[in-house]
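Hi there, hope your week has been kind to you so far. Thanks so much in advance, here it is.
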Amino acid sequence: MNQKNKKIMIADDDPGIVDAIEILLEFEGYEVTSTVDGSTVFDMKDELPDLLLLDIWMSGEDGRDICKKLKQLESTKNIPVIMISASRDVKDSAIAAGADDFLAKPFEMDELLKKISLLVPGS
């Protein structure tokens, strides 16, 4: 199940969720980096991920603001972003912020993997 070393970054301020998703994605063959601080997403200069899994409600910064900024930067505008949130009624605002897809927590890992495979060619 080699995903050709596709890189996925997880940005969520819930360490339990980060750990669970990280374990699953590594098992599936992805290279995973993670942060519990949304503002560090912009520190990924050389190691750009093939996909970003971004929580909307993070301490310090709203994931939608992070997504908007990423989509405006030349170096990061083509990185697919899946936004996740425990609140189902924010899907429209996530898409409006530039997210490529949305998942409401709790979600099935199979659903996450399906969305990733659609957004990351060759995975």
Remarks:
- Residues 19 and 34 are 9 Å apart (CA to CA).
- Strands lie at 7-11, 31-35, 51-55, 81-85, 101-104.
- The longest helix spans residues 15-27.
